[in-house]
Amino acid sequence: MTTFETGLFLNRIPFVKTGSGPAPIVVLNGGQAFVRRPTPARAQRDAERIARLLPAGRSVYVLGYDPAPSADYSIGTIVRDVAQILREEIGPATVIGISFGGFVAARLAADHPDLVKELILMVSAHRFSPEGRRSIDRQIACAWAGDFEGFLDEFGLVFRRPWLNWLIRLRFRRERTRLQETMNDPAVIVRGLNAVAGEDFGGDPSWLARIAAPTLIVGATRDRFFDVASLEETARLIPSARLHLFENETHMLPVERARDVTKVVTRFLSTQRCATCGGSG
């Protein structure tokens, strides 16, 4: 039976840990980690879903975000927190960034190469697509106005399968009467989104050249937040990166194709372990 340990790093950064053994994996979650009001049950569900994408026999830490971010919250702030956690609590690790978390993971690998053994960017790149950036701006405007219905409408067609889009719209309709209970404080949502929207990541991507860790980028050709151009650019600018694209999949690739994504991630990590041990791969 899989067991989960919950707690706080730095007395404020929530985490869920599962598994045991050497070579820890640290996962930086997507934006849902600060969009929804955090609860232990929701954190564990996220950790269960993420753990299914990863090989067995490894310690996996799924990190959340500061529940009370300061007004100057930024990617740099988050990177400093994660670097401190790795130095003081976990040690060097494989780092996986999912969606929003990929911005943090990539910058962490560039600024603290001693802490990141392997880097995996999951449905994430170093910048948004033009459509993705416009969507983030709309989300910020809706959250700032307290328009949670408008905010959730931005996620109305994120799945490839029509019946899943229908289910998520049904869920949103059912939740409309209690959105104030389930959604996080608007200021927290806006500060989290501004942490990525406040920087022009694509303006000067030269920092990607500082990433020394072997890197895997897993993307989808119909992802409206991170299009093929942004994914290919990220892979080209990171010295030791490989890109695996899933045709006709969307931003929900890790959910809809979990088994296939697991195979790609496991193969990459196994190859890196063999290379480190001097094996034949």
UniProtKB/TrEMBL annotation:
Taxonomic classification: Bacteria, Pseudomonadati, Pseudomonadota, Alphaproteobacteria, Hyphomicrobiales
Keyword tags: Hydrolase
InterPro entries: AB_hydrolase_1, AB_hydrolase_fold, AB_hydrolase_sf
Gene Ontology MF, one: hydrolase activity
Domain of life per record: Bacteria
Protein known as: Alpha/beta hydrolase
Domain AB hydrolase-1 as annotated: residue spans: 64-256
Organism in which the protein naturally occurs: Microvirga tunisiensis
Entry GO CC: membrane
Pfam family, one: Abhydrolase_1
